[in-house]
Amino acid sequence: MQLEKAKETKQDMERCRLLAQRIAEELAPATAAVLNAETPALEKALHRAGVDANPFTVAARQADLLVVEDPAWVEMPAQLPGQVLLVFTGSNVAEGWAEELARRGYYRDFRWRSRGRAQQSALYCTVQPATAEMIAGYEKELDLLRDRMVRAERTCNEEAALIERLRSDLSLSRSHAKNLEKTLNEVTSSTFWKLTWPMRYVVSKSRQIWHTFPLFVLLGELRRDGISGVREHARARREYAALFPGNLLRADRFAPVELLVRQANDQPAGLKISIVVPLYNTPLDFLDEMLDSVVNQTYKNWELCCVDAGKDEAVGQHVQARAKADARIRYQKLEKNELIPGNTNKGFEMATGEYIALLDHDDLLHPCALWYAARAIAEQKADFVYTDEATFEGKPEHVVLYHFKPDFMLDNLRSNNYICHLTVFSRALMERAGGGERMEYNGSQDYELFLRLTEQAEKIVHIPHALYYWRSSPGSTAADISAKTYCIDAGIAALKAHYARCGIAVDDVALIPGTPGYYKTDYTIEHPGRVSILIPTCDHIRDLELCVDSIYARTTYPDFELILIENNSKQPETFHAYERMQKEHPDNLKVVTWEGKGFNYSALNNFGEQYATGEYLLLLNNDTEVITPNWLEEMVMYAQQKRVGCVGAKLLYPDDTIQHAGIGFGIGGVAGHLHKYFPAASDGYMGRLNYVQDVYGDTAACLLIRREIYDEMNGLDESYAVAFNDVDFCVRVREAGYTNVFTPFAQLYHYESKSRGTEDNPEKQKRFQGEVLRFQARWGDLLAAGDPCTNPNFDIQREDFTLKILPLE
């Protein structure tokens, strides 16, 4: 309840901020009086926007602008300034005020339109507009209301249809379950089933004996591996017994014996790794498993630093008993509990290794974890290493979730602590980054530490194997971070501190609603240049009208232009529509005509770019429709950053499934759309549909980029007429050192190449295949290397993050 109230308060403040910013930019009043009986949020926002705003009093009646909030609840003052802005939080119309203002000689100024996430508002002034202008303004308002009503009705109908389908599916499922249960009862109660029970029992036991009886097992190994293979396996077993003395948790439950022995005999020339574990009343069976998982490491140059702040004396006795058997295990009883950050720092002080690893007291290390980390340190000179991880319940074999991560991606880390476990870093790096964990970030202390470490790291290496086993238990963060709400506040504070260190201006950092542990950053738009929207189009005028109308009706970004690139249209109504659009939007819409033949998306956009006047270019298909009013703000806040190249949006099919949420490089041999056909409301794999992240590429159906980069790349490659021009462009942008980004907070419908058509004839299919072969020839080495923004443990033939787990080498 408290979180919901805080969320509502933050949303109200955001609406006030956006409205105040717009008032300051468009109306530019020196002074403003605010008539508000509730809260001073808008007044404060106006002050921050540079307007001298004060509560409405007798002395404040000479202000340039009167802002009235919730006008249905206050009385109109006797004296009013020349401009009055009505702001309504609960309704779209303030009928009483509008009538009274009309009686006093005020007129609605339709140049002021309610936009986006800002509060609904209407501007009245004493200057009488032309009658035609007034009529047109009211007609536009009515059109907007009609559009909203149609969309609401469509949504209601779709929801009703969905509910009906779900009810039907549920009814069918129940009927099917009853039929299955009936059939099962008929089988188990039949005479034949009862008579054949002894036979089934014998067959079952025979199979069990065949797989477990030593002689049969030996015969199976001989048939599979031969005599030499059996001898090698026996030798490895003997060595394994000597090398891995784990009591409760055996190493061969995680990896083949031969691999474990081979790694144990092939030690990387690495430095000592100190594993720091804060203990706190750890259950003894969990403790034993954790200790075994460390003792059974194939890499041997480690020490385990256990710092105990708990009250259970049995924990200390247990660890000390194990330390007598292995001197690498060290134990220290802490005088007081300083929570995880303070206790972990005691472990850092206790450690003597050049590298440090973090391990929770009830989690497990894969036996090969430190070996891979040490190899990365020795061969790649890594000072920060992290691995993939698995979440398990009960036994480690019962994995309920694999978290396969991308390589180091800055925007991913700024959205959530995807690095998490296992992490190994150098002591020198930690000291360079300002020391250990900090108490003020308790709950997200690791996240805050990783942000500082990665800011300073010289070589970050990701090991794409699940080498850390995170135990899920009631109340644990592995089970649900919302069980620890203070973690969320600490994570937000850690991100704000990170941006302050990096000198990055942000308006806000907030939790993404409904996704605990995932954060949204609103970067300050310090370079709000014009966005030139390039839209190639050929007939299909209804699609184009929907696209253009949605841009003008819903876009809140103040500075944009539309360049319609006419491509061999034939229908007269197309050109009539062009004329109408140019008359309606004479200041920022123009039509340019491409003289080429056929369809060449690359050439069309390169041609249109010559007429652009903006600092940013937005490549946009004519079969799209804007959904989120602040779509351009969400994209520009990333495109303005010097490190960023292409920025893509979340595109939905008309049935509200995903069409685009970033491009996965190498899928199907070339590239594919990640999460394609997932429901729009889905979280995606590990929440990836909810947060901003780095991707290999974005579709040119909606792609924003700084014009200077577009020119640096010499635009789109015109040898790719239809397919892969956007992927090729994004690859070239990445190779030039820029990061491509996907944001789910800019959303549009995409009706998927209606005006181009499908590859449904031999000529088109031949051209498509030629573009595939050309792309593979150009980028073969990169395709072989894989997509660092995803993970090699996903099936490269699928777009849905299906697992295809790689074996350990």
From TrEMBL:
Q: Which residues form a coiled coil?
A: 135-183
Q: Where is the signal peptide?
A: none
- Glycosyltransferase 2-like domain location is 274-428, 532-711
Q: Does the keyword Coiled coil apply?
A: yes
| Record InterPro entries | Glyco_trans_2-like, Nucleotide-diphossugar_trans
Q: Which organism is it from?
A: Faecalibacterium hominis (ex Afrizal et al. 2022)
Alphabetical UniProt keywords: Coiled coil
Q: What is the lineage of its organism?
A: Bacteria, Bacillati, Bacillota, Clostridia, Eubacteriales
According to UniProt, the name of this protein is Glycosyltransferase family 2 protein
